[in-house]
UniProtKB/TrEMBL annotation:
This is Epoxyqueuosine reductase. Pathway: tRNA modification; tRNA-queuosine biosynthesis. One of its GO terms (biological process) is tRNA queuosine(34) biosynthetic process. Its main location: cytoplasm. Keywords: 4Fe-4S, Cobalamin, Cobalt, Cytoplasm, Iron, Iron-sulfur, Metal-binding, Oxidoreductase, Queuosine biosynthesis, tRNA processing. The keyword 4Fe-4S applies. It comes from the Bacteria.
Length: 415
């Protein structure tokens, strides 16, 4: 955390930084600063900004139980950090408040059809939910298509969010002088959904993602941990329904039923070991045999639980060009992407979140998709497409990577 021993804000309330220096803050100035932070956030493209305290004790027991059950799979870093995820002041000493921001990522290229009559809060008007959702589901129904999760079709969100949050922190610093802060964008052990709910930005859906009435769930979250005792926002109010505490999902279970692998094992609980996003992104080794047929043609991530969520009829288009679709990733074929060389992968995926998984896992995922295409019901894949897939797989039957060879061999078993 960047720190300084003092700030120009003066008088009560006070805080003590990591070095033991006492700093005083004027309450009226802090209130004004909080309002300015939200104004600056909107100027930077954020659809919502909220401020919360750091008390996440209620999340500790569920987190511990989830880890104990092994639901994090091979994401060892989650267990390594332990309860630091629920204790912001332990993760970053001196933290008093957390500023949480969201930004919509739905690319305008993903959309087609008539726009909403209402004005979008985040960005351009977006077509009615059934139309863009139908386009996504049509891709899923085409065995030869390579389906990349919507959020990953543009520029790496880590970079986009981090840069904008850093600009926001610098605006705060210009206003009050040096202060302690640290920016996070899915880059450290942060319970971002819990923090966002405490900050009044939304509530946790049964698929475990954050939902907001005005924006659904198709957005990124980022945080700034600060040592300034800013006024906090009201936490998102819970439903009256006792069976869904803290949620506005009511009795709806569409996301649970839509999950291809049954990864949403209970409302508000995901077993990562069954989640397609985990299997295609976080898992570095062989994809379990029983999971491969369930993945279908999803080669990077999965949006199924979001596609069926009624709240996403309010999903908003990205307000920045960074999330525009690159390299035709919204309409690419499995064969087309499987033909990329390692150099092509590195070049085309420069600045993309996809590059993080590496070329080997990219080919692994595509091989699974191609194997599933060959296993698709009769009539769903043309003879020409089938021949092209088999030919492409055979070209990589002797790939230098044992991981790739294994998944290619599995795919060709259906040839």
């Amino acid at each position: 955390m960047k720190r300084s021993p003092e700030s120009p804000l003066s008088s009560a309330p006070a805080s003590v930084d990591a070095k033991g220096a006492v700093r005083h803050f004027d309450e009226a100035a802090l209130n004004a600063l909080a309002l300015n932070i939200k104004t600056w956030g909107r100027e930077l493209g954020f659809g919502a900004i909220g401020i919360s305290d750091t008390d996440l004790r209620a999340a500790e027991a569920p987190l511990a139980a989830w880890l104990e059950a092994g639901c994090h799979g091979e994401m060892d870093y989650m267990a390594k950090h332990g309860m630091k995820r629920a204790r912001p002041a332990e993760l970053v000493a001196g933290t008093r408040r957390v500023i949480t921001a969201r930004i919509a990522y739905l690319p305008i290229e993903t959309l087609s059809g008539k726009a909403h009559e209402s004005t979008a809060q985040d960005g351009p008007l977006v077509p009615h939910w059934p139309q863009w959702r139908a386009a996504e589901q049509a891709q899923l129904a085409d065995p030869s298509a390579a389906v990349v999760s919507i959020y990953a079709r543009g520029r790496d969100y880590h970079k986009v969010m981090r840069n904008r949050l850093q600009h926001l922190a610098e605006k705060i610093e210009a206003e009050i002088g040096p202060f302690g802060y640290r920016v996070f964008t899915d880059s450290a052990p942060v319970l971002e959904v819990e923090l966002a709910q405490k900050a009044g930005i939304g509530w946790r859906g049964k698929h475990t993602l954050l939902l907001q009435r005005e924006a659904g769930s198709l957005f990124f979250l980022g945080e700034i941990y600060v040592d300034v005792p800013l006024p906090t926002d009201a936490e998102t109010s819970p439903d009256a329904a006792p069976e869904t505490p803290g949620s506005h999902c009511g009795s709806c279970t569409r996301c649970i039923g839509a999950c291809p692998t049954g990864a949403i094992v209970a409302p508000y609980k995901v077993d990562a070991r069954r989640c397609i996003s985990y299997l295609t992104i976080e898992l570095k080794g062989s994809i379990p045999l029983d999971m491969r047929p369930l993945i279908g043609n999803r080669v990077y991530g999965c949006d199924d639980c979001q596609l069926v969520c009624p709240w996403n009829k309010f999903a908003q288009a990205a307000p920045v060009a960074d999330f525009d679709v690159r390299h035709g990733l919204d309409r690419a074929s499995l064969v087309e992407l499987f033909a990329w060389s390692a150099d092509e992968f590195d070049t085309r995926m420069q600045g993309s979140a996809i590059r993080r998984i590496g070329y080997e896992c990219w080919l692994r995922n595509l091989a699974v998709g191609m194997g599933n295409a060959l296993r698709a019901p009769s009539g769903s894949l043309s003879a020409e497409a089938r021949e092209a897939i088999v030919h492409a797989l055979k070209l990589r039957a002797d790939d230098p990577s044992a991981l790739v060879r294994e998944h290619v061999e599995w795919a060709l078993e259906a040839a």
